[in-house]
Amino acid sequence: MIIVTGATGPLNGATVDHLLERVPASELVVVARDPSRAERFADRGVAVRRGDYAEPQSLPGAFDGADQLLLVSSSDPAADAVSLHRSAIEAAVAAGVGRILYTSHQGASPDSPFRPARDHAATEQVLADSGVAWTSLRNGFYAHSLSWLIGPWRETGVVTVPVDGPVSWTARADAAEAAAAVLLSDGAYDGPVTIAASESPTFEDVAALAAQLAGRDVERVVVGEDAWLAAQVAGGTAEFMARFTLGIYQAAHAGLFANEDTTLETVLGRAPRTVGDLLLS
């Protein structure tokens, strides 16, 4: 049996959709904090159980019977993500889960300037210490994030960044499809696995591509970290969130989101979607 958490969200929800194309609904279970939000899966014959990382007592029963368990990572920047993940992993061990899969992030490292990458690295260590077989899906930075990271370039003709660096922008839809394939691979992928596009354009490259696609000039401008932070706060962004976002650019500048690994293409059996595909949409 495959049990999937976070299926009411866009990533693991799409993964369940892909699984349903290949396995009977009776072999799947989804776990949600609010089961009423998972009705579309219940309507297709998938069992729905209630479970909440913040309520550890709800988890062992929710995970019972899992040969494989796909844990979605916490997306709340204000939460103690590692503590939540640890509760889920400990519950999975108590439930006798055969393999734990976890949605991590490319560049997971205790030294990353991007805070979620540090949380993912810590969670991967919890998995490694758990004694259970595990797979960490290190997804590339989701390409739809470009819509806010590069700003209103169509109107301004400018992409303003604090610093520049390469990022292997990855379609969330591709990551979801890949997760389903890994779940059905009979344990072929163990430990950290990079699920990211193999091309890593810089923001300057993205601006050049945007200009080509739009048929107009688009300039990439690097303003520096302090000036960028000040502009974000002046524009109404809370300083906490501005610094959180700055960490993305800093990690890119350090090369932590660059990738040449072709595992995603291998898993999908086709070329992943590109930045150009996103900009055209």
TrEMBL record:
Limits of the NAD(P)-binding domain: 6-183
Gene3D superfamilies linked to this entry: NAD(P)-binding Rossmann-like Domain, UDP-galactose 4-epimerase, domain 1
The protein, known as: NAD(P)H-binding protein
Organism: Nocardioides conyzicola
